[in-house]
TrEMBL record:
Lineage, broadest ranks: Bacteria, Pseudomonadati, Pseudomonadota, Alphaproteobacteria, Rhodospirillales
UniProt feature coiled coil, ranges: none
Catalytic activity: O-phospho-L-serine + 2-oxoglutarate = 3-phosphooxypyruvate + L-glutamate
Family: Belongs to the class-V pyridoxal-phosphate-dependent aminotransferase family. SerC subfamily.
Organism from which the protein derives: Paramagnetospirillum kuznetsovii
Keyword Amino-acid biosynthesis applies: yes
Region annotation (Disordered) ranges: 1-22
Protein name as it appears in the record: phosphoserine transaminase
Length: 392
């Protein structure tokens, strides 16, 4: 083992997972005390909670008044699938992928829906496709932030205001941490376990008036499962967007998300959330700029994510290791930090290049990020001592 000195200070909260991410500072189970457990979500109290969640979400994010907001099944995945299966097929599609989840949507479009008029724009981990080549008169499907690659879309300038197609945006690790241009987005999805630290299984689906028009005037050529159906008799099922969920939600998870939204309001809303997340990225990047072994997976500073901060290992010996040994070395860093109760769940996503991923969303304290960084140096030193001989 290396003689690199072990840091003496640990993060107060070692939870740096990219989903479910850390709870808001100061969270305890007491935050759930007002949950109407044992009550129907269709009862007056249950429906009021769901409506309150939608209203607070709209207010914090600045979602236009004429956009519908719904709580839907199956997390962000369910929300994206509902949108794609209900809306796609009316015109050609431009699908963007630069990480695992975008690749998944491309697979669904081309292999499951089998939509032939699809152009796929791909880029490797750490990069973006050429956004200027996207045709917004076609339907566009993309992630705003690549959770598994640490790369985000820098802005919405590439999306035409007078577009004929719909923009379908998976924003699950961007919303509440990045400023989304709602006028450029027709469908936006996310899940509660991202950014604000909610629990899983629930998705959020936002529809612009243009998306609603498509829903009510276009009928897909394929049958839709019940949990995907947002219309009845050619009309929008408005209840979905007033808290009348398609299936039974967890009222405990609802209460937890309400607590997170109230916390966000107490900070000052979206601007404060963005500032906290950007401060976390700045702390990590300042350390990376001086590191002799780690780098941001995204070379271009303009596209670096402030939530899913992905780190590659640039040490010369590491590049000489086999792919299996690179994966083993990265996993050893993760296991050492978990054993020391310094950081949990910071391994790179299974399909991404071997490395680390540190969540920097607003619920993570910058002071904890700063305490984590010396431990990364320590853990790497231990792994280098063990693996360097394999690179000879």
């Amino acid at each position: 083992m290396s003689d690199f000195p072990q840091p003496s200070v640990r993060p107060s909260n070692p939870n740096f997972s990219s989903g479910p991410c850390a709870k808001r500072p100061g969270w305890t189970v007491d935050a759930l005390k007002d949950t109407p457990v044992g009550r129907s979500h269709r009862a007056k109290i249950g429906k009021a909670k769901l409506e309150e969640l939608i209203t607070r979400t709209r207010d914090i994010l600045g979602i236009p008044a004429d956009y519908r907001i719904g709580i839907v099944p199956a997390s962000d995945t369910g929300a994206v699938e509902m949108a794609m299966w209900s809306l796609l097929g009316a015109r050609g599609i431009d699908a963007l992928a630069w990480e695992s989840f975008g690749d998944g949507w491309v697979t669904d479009i081309t292999k499951q829906l089998k939509l032939e008029d699809t152009r796929v724009f791909k880029a490797g981990y750490g990069e973006l496709p050429k956004l200027g080549e996207v045709d917004c008169d076609r339907d566009v499907v993309f992630t705003w932030n690549g959770t598994t690659s640490g790369v985000r879309v820098p802005n919405g300038d590439w999306i035409k205001s007078d577009r004929k197609g719909l923009t379908i945006c998976d924003a699950t690790s961007a919303v509440f941490a990045m400023d989304l241009p709602w006028d450029k987005l027709d469908v936006v999805t996310w899940s509660w376990q991202k950014v604000l630290g909610g629990e899983g299984a629930h998705g959020m689906l936002v529809l612009s008036p243009r998306a609603v028009e498509r829903l009510t005037t276009y009928k897909p050529a394929w049958p839709l499962p019940k949990i995907f159906r947002m219309t009845s008799g050619g009309k929008l099922s408005e209840g979905i967007f007033k808290g009348e969920t398609i299936n039974t939600p967890s009222m405990i998870a609802v209460e937890d998300q309400l607590d997170a939204l109230k916390w966000a309001e107490s900070l000052g809303g979206l601007k404060a959330l963005i500032a906290r997340s950007e401060a976390n990225l700045k702390a990590v990047q300042s350390w990376l700029d001086k590191s002799d072994w780690a780098a941001n997976l995204a070379d271009d500073a303009k596209v670096r994510s402030c939530t899913s901060i992905c780190l590659s290992i640039k040490a010369p010996f590491f590049a000489k290791l086999s792919a299996d040994d690179q994966a083993a070395a990265a996993k050893k860093i993760v296991s050492l930090l978990e054993k020391e109760k310094v950081a949990y769940d910071i391994g790179a996503y299974r399909d991404a290049p071997s490395g680390l991923r540190v969540w920097g969303g607003a619920t993570v304290e910058t002071s904890d990020i700063e305490k984590l960084l010396p431990w990364l140096d320590w853990a790497f030193a231990q792994v280098k001592a063990e693996f360097a001989s394999k690179a000879a």
